[in-house]
Amino acid sequence: xxxxxxxxxxxxxxxxxxxxxxxxxxxxxxxxxxxxxxxxxxxxxxxxxxxxxxxxxxxxxxxxxxxxxxxxxxxxxxxxxxxxxxxxxxxxxxxxxxxxxxxxxxxxxxxxxxxxxxxxxxxxxxxxxxxxxxxxxxxxxxxxxxxxxxxxxxxxxxxxxxxxxxxxxxxxxxxxxxxxxxxxxxxxxxxxxxxxxxxxxxxxxxxxxxxxxxxxxxxxxxxxxxxxxxxxxxxxxxxxxxxxxxxxxxxxxxxxxxxxxxxxxxxxxxxxxxxxxxxxxxxxxxxxxxxxxxxxxxxxxxxxxxxxxxxxxxxxxxxxxxxxxxxxxxxx
Length: 332
Hints:
Elements: E1 2-6, H1 10-30, E2 35-40, E3 45-47, H2 54-59, E4 69-70, H3 75-78, E5 86-89, H4 101-110, E6 114-117, H5 120-136, E7 141-142, H6 153-160, E8 166-172, H7 175-187, H8 191-201, H9 209-212, H10 215-228, E9 239-240, H11 248-256, E10 259-268, E11 271-280, E12 291-298, E13 303-309, H12 313-331
Parallel strand pairs: 1-2, 1-5, 5-6, 6-7, 9-11
Antiparallel strand pairs: 2-3, 3-4, 8-10, 8-12, 10-11, 12-13
Helix pairs in contact: 1-12, 4-5, 5-10, 7-8
């Protein structure tokens, strides 16, 4: 399987490192050799259709002098030159236009490539259109890493719940907000102080709006709803409320009554909502720190609850790599 990795952020670097470390195991256990023929950065790309030296790319401080470096950063312009079966789209999420990931995915499909992505934007905005395009060109889009990091939601449903109908979904889908609410609960601190702490520790971005205003969780909920509940919906369909107005006093009142305040994403009876909600202390949603929780209600298997790490470079790369392997095995 020859792949091109688009984007060079934390997840991309983690994926390249895992590919270096796991290549022998993958070949021995699955009979799959993964060759990376392209790595696209903002200011250019590494291109070699015979396979790139990933260790050298990861350790190179003067990448512009590398023999495989080209000063063309636009995947759309040089997709024709790539001998590649799979595009791995890992650019940052944009829920306003979906770009540049949206164009990358379309270009890859139109050039006969399958797509693996961790980018929520294109799917949150244009899930039906992208799946229609993939079907037209007889290619696949896999996106396990878009929701809940290392938790294998889509693979679980696709491979192990084939006869089940997913009736509803409820989850804590953003680790940053869960960390903030957990700290506000345990230390009785106000939101602004805990947010600054989270930013210093790297849990929250300098502009935390994607997390604390529920934008990230809403995008994930839309993908879950389209993929698992087969409900055609878009980002604009989500009713959204963030956590900025939650006070230590409200948290303490809830705790005295046996509840915690959590930021939940829900699709029940076709209504999509991201908002603070009360959950019972001791319930499966009472997780602390940056953990994610997803509860699926099904018609046959009944309720299934999954808990795991919803973020992190290596954790997300784990899901990306699993999707790459699935496509490689299907193509044999």
